[in-house]
Amino acid sequence: MTRIGFIGLGNMGGPMAANLAKAGHTVQVFDLVAQSVESAIAAGCIAAGDAREAVTGCEVVISMLPAGEHVRALWLGESDGERGGQDLLAALPAGTLVIDCSTIDVDSARQVGEAARARGLRFIDAPVSGGVAGAAAGTLTFIVGGDAADFAAAKPLLACMGQNLFHAGALGAGQIAKMCNNMLLAIHMAGTAEALALGVKEGLDPAVLSTIMGKSSGNNWSLERYNPWPGVMENVPAARNYQGGFMTRLMVKDLGLAMALAEHGHSAVPMGALARNLFNLHAAQGQGSRDFSSIVELYLDKQDPA
Ligand code: NAD
Fold first, then answer.
1. Ligand 1 centroid – CA 299 distance (Å)
2. Which residues are catalytic (predicted)?
3. Are residue 142 and residue 159 in the same domain, yes or no?
4. What are 154-208's pLDDT values in tens digits?
5. Which of 70, 73, 67 has its CA nearest to residue 88?
């Protein structure tokens, strides 16, 4: 069994750490939010007073944080804009395996990975797909960038949290693949919301329409596994007023990362750019903290106050 330090116990990190503990590993956890730490203790993890204490004595350390600035602050010691950094790489003994599961910009992933290597540590970028339900069920997809040997070393632990484990390529490749995936996710979520709203306005039942499209050529993950229309599926954010899940502001972040990649390679991404505008508009209307499938509300008629 492995002693693991786990930092960042939000919608995703909480259930991921719980699955590692369930598999019998010793999981030392830290989050800035005390309630998240409490939930992790209830799931069998061990609370640490701070991030440094969480990684002490661990062979493997995992971070699951919102964005690149948080990851750089934790591992490299830069300020994340709100608080000072921690330079935790400096606290780790050589040979420790650092796994960052956050979805972050490629430059930050490479910067942290190279700094880790320079200190004799091992590092992989390992962003995930599968949502909160996948994190809870231990069925996530891991998309890994880094050395093949480090991927192989991480695999037994990743398998406690996920079902599909992919090595995308060298350092940063996990993030590139993840951005391609999330751009596509944003496009089919917005498209699914649009198609459902079109049918419902013409009198169709959203559940019946979802079943029909689900067995037809319009089928996709947003429709089948994460239906945005309230009342169509249980156990999805649409069934709980879009609480929990994948926040719109995080999707906006990911679409920004995809646009930066497109800029870098002069790639044409017209559908991604449109999706980014839609999710930006939705976030600007005060929806940043709600699950991204609430984009369906953009398509609903509002009452005319006059
Ligand atoms: P979240 O906001 O729910 O969780 C992030 C956690 O990090 C919070 O609990 C926060 O308190 C903690 N945190 C931030 N800075 C910290 C620090 N310095 N020390 C300790 N804890 C700190 O976000 P999430 O939904 O769990 O997403 C995490 C990452 O996973 C993001 O990069 C996101 O894009 C990605 N992701 C999310 C989903 C999803 O469905 N929610 C799916 C795939 C990937």
1. 28
2. 178
3. yes
4. 999 999 999 999 999 999 999 999 999 999 999 999 999 999 999 999 999 999 9
5. 73
